[in-house]
Amino acid sequence: MKGKMEQSQRQRLIEEGKNLKEGLIALEEDLLKLNDKLQLEAQRIPNMTHPNVPIGGEDSSMTRKLVGSAPEFSFPVKDHLELGKELCLFDFDTAAEVSGSKFYYLKNDAVLLEMALVNWTLSEVMKRGFTPLTTPELVRSSVVEKCGFQPRGNNTQVYSIEDSDQCLIGTAEIPVGGLHMDSILAETLLPLKYVAFSHCFRTEAGAAGSATRGLYRVHQFSKVEMFIFCRPEESEHYHEELIKIEEDMFSSLGLHFKTLDMASEDLGAPAYRKFDVEAWMPGLERFGEISSASNCTDYQSRRLGIRYRPSEAPVASPKSSKGNLAPPLFVHTLNATACAVPRMIICLLENYQQEDGSILIPEPLRPFMGGRSVISRKL
């Protein structure tokens, strides 16, 4: 086009250039569609598993630790629903009329107990070097997907907002995971430790039966979540740190519980290894899950684009350019439940019930309950 040529030849080349440009636009659109399709297919691939993870279903999970013993009662044991009704702590019937099944009102001392659990948990975890957060409770569906959850599947646990790309969070793990999305962190900042309070929303698709009654499985609840960004070689160490924090807190509340190394089929897509904590619930006459701690290695950080730049640059070669910055590496992410409020309320009511129908408040929570030691009936 820059050289001398006949006008007819120039016009032909102009037309050819226009066709190439239009063809390129069409190819770019196809590429975007193919990239989206590839991303959806890739998201179906779960993380690798730790070599020590038990292979099989939930029944193959291994007990790591058993703490305490089940309380013995000299009177008929009540479940949390019966205790809550007598002490005027819950209202499931009105909530069902207002919102639907698996919703509830907390009332009176149950409200104070929730606040006490949240504030006590935050104070305990912050003592261990975690930065407190509250988070958005609506996030983009792309962030949900990048954290390893499926917001649009048939049996999804995620509530999606109609005519938008947003979802309600099922855990603060999702917005905290997105906190450093598409960024390169300085190695000196690691580890980054956060403890986040949020409300959580779950469809609980397929959940039914007496084992999930009352507060055990609900659509909305409060939770305190721990989250760590760290260097890859440190993630197993911090996984042990997270489960130790959980065990220490549940022990201080006097709960009888066991810690499980979960089997491969119960890990979920993001987890490389997962430890669950199950506490004894006398009214349900079984152990029930109250917490978990997962090492997701770089599964989430690759999708979220969270990297760090090592402090030490590689040895310079004669041909290397100035600067000699080390190439960025993906961080590892870990998450753990510090306090899922409804399940903790079940444990406290059922384990600390007294013959007269009152509930003893564990000592660590009393300063957060105005110094009170007992929840008793309103006269």
Q: How would you state the average pLDDT, rounded?
A: 92
CATH architecture: 2-Layer Sandwich
Shape: elongated
Radius of gyration: 26 Å
Structural class estimated from helices and strands: alpha+beta
Strand order of the largest sheet: 1-10-11-12-15-9-8-4
Total of DSSP H or I helical runs spanning 4+ residues: 9
Counting DSSP E segments of at least 2 residues, the number of strands comes to: 17
How many distinct folded domains?
1
CATH classification, class level:
Alpha Beta
- Helix content bin: 25-40%
CATH topology: BirA Bifunctional Protein, domain 2
Binding site for L-serine: 171, 202, 225, 335
GO biological process, one term: seryl-tRNA aminoacylation
Site (Important for serine binding): 337
GO molecular function: ATP binding; serine-tRNA ligase activity
Question: How is the topology of this model organized?
Answer:
Layout: H1 7-42, E1 62-67, H2 80-86, E2 90-91, H3 92-98, E3 105-106, H4 109-126, E4 131-134, E5 138-140, H5 141-146, E6 166-168, H6 173-177, E7 183-186, E8 192-201, E9 220-230, H7 235-252, E10 257-261, E11 273-281, E12 286-295, H8 299-304, E13 306-309, E14 329-330, E15 332-340, H9 341-351, E16 359-360, E17 374-375
Parallel strand pairs: 4-8, 7-13
Antiparallel strand pairs: 1-10, 2-3, 5-6, 8-9, 9-15, 10-11, 11-12, 12-15, 13-14, 16-17
In a nutshell, what does this entry contain?
The chain is of the alpha+beta class and 379 residues long.
